[in-house]
Design brief:
The protein is built from 5 helices and 9 strands. It has 176 residues and is an alpha/beta fold.
Length: 176
């Protein structure tokens, strides 16, 4: 709406098709892409926004994804990311007695289809610094809106309003 060109990417073609049906705009393009090796040139974007999509099954691929984000950002570009919290997953599962298959060494959870890596402020700091980012900030964001709680209850079968889970919110700037 403000004249920005937006590229929405996902490795799952089904997700792209669903999104294309919901969102249609002349300056919005959908691209099938794997975050481990993005099909974009170096310094292509002012901003990269990632919403719970840096969740590969292998921990080593988290670093590759942050490296790719850094590569495609323009100098002074921003990475804005919501990164699922491993600590919150562990706390929520314990509090509500939700049987969860967790790999504490690799900080992963099994979501009934495959493993997904989650994040802590420490793993984010390590990955973001190794990628080349010098300035960044990580905060907790609680998933406690009415819609979020409704979706979480549908997924987990528990009323999470008393102890809502949280995610990590990252803002990082590429200087150079």
């Amino acid at each position: 709406r403000q004249g920005n060109h937006v590229i929405a990417s996902d490795y799952a073609i089904t997700m792209l098709k669903v999104s294309q049906k919901k969102f249609n705009h002349a300056k919005l393009v959908f691209v099938e892409a794997d975050n481990v090796k993005l099909p974009f040139i170096k310094n292509a974007f002012d901003t990269v926004i990632s919403v719970h999509s840096i969740v590969p099954d292998k921990r080593i691929d988290v670093q590759k994804m942050f490296n790719e984000i850094y590569r495609v950002l323009k100098p002074n570009g921003k990475c804005i990311a919501f990164l699922p919290s491993f600590v919150s997953i562990v706390e929520t599962a314990a509090y509500f007695h939700i049987p969860a298959k967790l790999d504490k060494k690799q900080q992963r959870g099994y979501d009934s289809l495959h493993w997904q890596c989650f994040h802590t402020p420490e793993t984010i700091k390590k990955n973001i610094q190794l990628a080349g980012f010098k300035k960044y900030q990580v905060k907790k964001v609680f998933l406690n809106t009415t819609n979020e709680l409704k979706q979480l209850k549908r997924i987990y079968g528990a009323d999470l309003s008393q102890k809502p889970p949280y995610t990590n919110f990252l803002i990082a700037v590429k200087y150079g």
